[in-house]
Amino acid sequence: MSARAGVNVETLQAASLQKPDTILRSLSVLVIHGPNLNLLGQREPGIYGSISLAEINRLLEAEALKLQAKVTFIQSNHEGILVDAIHEALEQHQGILINAGAYTHTSVALRDAIAAVNLPTVEVHLSNIYRREGFRHNSYIAPVAIGQISGFGVQSYLLGLQALVGHLRS
Ligand code: CA2
User: Fold this and answer.
1) 125 an active-site residue?
2) Is 140 a residue of the active site?
3) Does ligand 1 have an atom closer than 6 angstroms to the CB of 38?
4) Confidence of residue 104 (pLDDT cuts 50, 70, 90)
5) pLDDT of amino acid 23
6) pLDDT digits (tens, 9 = 90+) for 27-71
7) What kind of fold does domain 28-169 have according to CATH?
8) 156 Cβ partners below 8 Å, 6+ apart?
9) Which residue, of 23, 64, 132, 164, has the greatest Cβ tally within 10 A?
10) Region 133-160: what's the mean pLDDT?
11) Whose CA is nearest to atom 3 of ligand 1?
């Protein structure tokens, strides 16, 4: 081993010999759950299944581990709290995974917050919003998201996380 200015040259050489795709940057993703999603598993299992929000978060943790990413969760029933969380994400996270719940179809404020921070965002829905009532067919989030996954239950979240991390690493 040769040493220069206290730097372990062997370690540097080993790092530079790795294929670029095997050097994984540490990535942090903020997962946002909107209004009423705290009720998952307790009400309306016919539409949203019997899985709880805590279980969805556990599955996302496990998926994030496989993807070598970090996930942080917030659920709120209050639009302003979600807007604040999106603003604060700019300092701490590289991407956002969001199920904005009913705010998907109503909230210009959430859309503007996502556009303002300009963090890559993936929109997910448990149900297929396009097979449901007409008022669920419009998403204010979709035009400022890099993509949307809808209709696959908890898989929508897991596929969304994979897509977001893939996008951030590409
Ligand atoms: O399918 C989705 O993930 C939705 O974002 C869920 C929202 C709905 O307003 C969107 O149109 C589609 C509703 C979340 C409410 O979750 C509940 C869970 C259990 C019981 C009642 C509501």
Assistant:
1) yes
2) no
3) no
4) very high
5) 61
6) 999 999 999 999 999 877 888 989 999 999 999 999 999 999 999
7) Rossmann fold (3.40.50)
8) 99, 124, 125, 126, 149, 150
9) 164
10) 98
11) 125
Question: What does the domain layout of the chain look like in residue ranges?
Answer: 28-169
Residue 40, CA distances (Å) to 64, 101, 112 in order: 21, 12, 27
The distance from CA 26 to its chain's CA centroid, rounded to whole angstroms, is 15
Which ranges of the chain would DSSP assign to H, the alpha helix? 9-17, 45-48, 53-66, 79-92, 108-117, 154-169
Q: Which ligand 1 atom sits closest to the C-alpha of 127?
A: 1
Amino acid at 144: V
Q: Is the pLDDT of residue 21 over 90?
A: no
- The CA R_g of the chain, rounded to the nearest whole Å, is 19
Q: Among 52, 75, 98, 104, which residue has the most ligand 1 atoms within 8 Å of its CB, making it the best to mutate? A: 104
Asked if residue 109 has pLDDT above 50, the reply is: yes
Residue among 127, 137, 141, 154 to mutate when testing ligand 1 (max atoms within 8 A of CB): 127
Q: Is the CB of 104 under 6 A from ligand 1?
A: yes
Token readout for 86 is: 């999106």
Q: What percentage of the chain carries pLDDT values higher than 90? A: 81
To the nearest 10 degrees (0 to 180), the angle between helices 79-92 and 108-117 is: 10
